[in-house]
Amino acid sequence: MGLTLAQKIIKRHLVSGDMVPGSEIGLKIDQTLTQDATGTMAYIEFEAMGIPRVRTELSVAYVDHNTLQTGFENADDHRFIQSVAKKRGIYFSRPGNGICHQVHLERFGIPGKTLIGSDSHTPTGGGIGMLAIGAGGLDVAVAMGGGPYYIPMPKMLRVNLTGRLRPWVSAKDVILYVLKKLTVKGGVGRVVEYCGEGVKTLTVPERATITNMGAELGATTSVFPSDEVTREFLKAQGRAKDWTELKADDDAVYDETLNVDLSQVTSLAACPNSPDAVKSVDEIGKIKIDQVCIGSCTNSSYRDLMRVASILKGKTVNPDVSLVISPG
Q1: DSSP-assigned letters across all residues of 85-152
Q2: Which listed residue, of 4, 71, 171, 211, carries a Cα 20 to 30 Å from 246's Cα?
Q3: What is the value of pTM for the model shown?
Q4: At a CB cut-off of 8 Å and minimum separation 6, what does 8 contact?
């Protein structure tokens, strides 16, 4: 019996336990990331271990959340994180460098590696074939010290993609469609693995948008195969040497399957008060808009922002609308 892509990565990094759904397994962690809203406590915990240098292949501390300096608290946190990074062999990403998940995907993500981060949207890395999981600060600190990351062995949920997205339908619509079908509890205890002919029609930033919001499904993580699209993405980032082809075996067995025809996905929106309260734009109809937020860690790639720029070119923001843009 063959293995799914996620099972292959888990098997290569398994340090304890058996790959039986629900039983505890320990995984070797290759990379970690933190952001400044959760990183301070993680580094206090790491400092308490008395370990002189991180023992991961790579650890990165990002400052991208609390960047408004209305008091001394944020600045103090940032200075502390920077000092720990310098002393313990951790890359430090300054405020303004970009949002942790997008930057990590572009600059550090490697197919087949394990990544845990003290942020729920760490599964963004699954867009290039990483096993990337959001974790608590203490778990990240332990991983930086060389310790395993313990989780229940997840079930495998396959999302089989066919067809191609229609114009003006985006990857965000795909994950909203999946949320509508599975709900915010549909991914609990599962790895969501995207397969099928439709995968090759999606760019890496589009794939990363989908895996990012797998967090809203409650999933352990989400992952796409690493293919020629991935190779071209890494090549464009000057990191062609990091590419490895990764995919599920043809005879891999999944616990559940959801079929999604991309050509049938329409423009969708999540309504208050839950990410799975999804309606089509047509259902919502015309409503007055007071504020527009573009970007965030979900879809703030260069491609996303250039699409917005082309739409807004030559226009001005309505005086009754507040526009906020968060580049990745």
Answers
A1: HHHHT-EEE-TTS--HHHHHHHHT--TT-EEEESSTTGGGGGGGT-EEEE--HHHHHHHHTT--EEEE
A2: 171
A3: 0.95
A4: 246, 248, 249
Average pLDDT over residues 2-27: 98
Residue 133 and residue 131: Cα distance in Å, rounded?
7
CB 224 within 8 A of CB 212: no
Give me 303's structure tokens: 């491609």
Q: What are phi and psi of 72, to 5 degrees?
A: -85, -15
Which residue is associated with the tokens 């209305």?
70
3-state secondary structure of 182: helix
Mean local confidence (pLDDT), 282-290: 94
Mind listing the pLDDT tens digit for each residue in 26-46?
999 999 999 999 999 999 999
- 161: helix, coil or strand? strand
Q: Catalogue all structural domains in the chain, each as residue range(s) with its CATH number.
A: 5-279 (3.30.499.10), 288-326 (no CATH)
Sign of CA dihedral 312, 313, 317, 323: positive
SS3 43: helix
The dihedral over CA atoms of 232, 113, 17, 143, expressed in degrees to the nearest 10, equals: -150
Give 224's contacts (C-beta < 8 A, 6+ positions apart): 126, 127, 128, 129, 194, 199, 202, 207, 210, 211, 230
CB 30 within 8 A of CB 56: yes
Q: How many CA atoms lie within 13 A of 68 on its CB side?
A: 1
Give dist(CA 171, CA 179) in Å, integer: 13
Summarised one tens digit per residue, pLDDT across range 258-277 is 999 999 999 999 999 999 99
Using an 8 Å Cβ cutoff, are 292 and 41 in contact? no
Backbone angles phi, psi at 116, to 5 degrees: -120, 145
Give the closest residue to 300 by CA, choosing from 23, 104, 24.
104
Q: Is 38 helix (H, G, I), strand (E, B) or coil?
A: helix
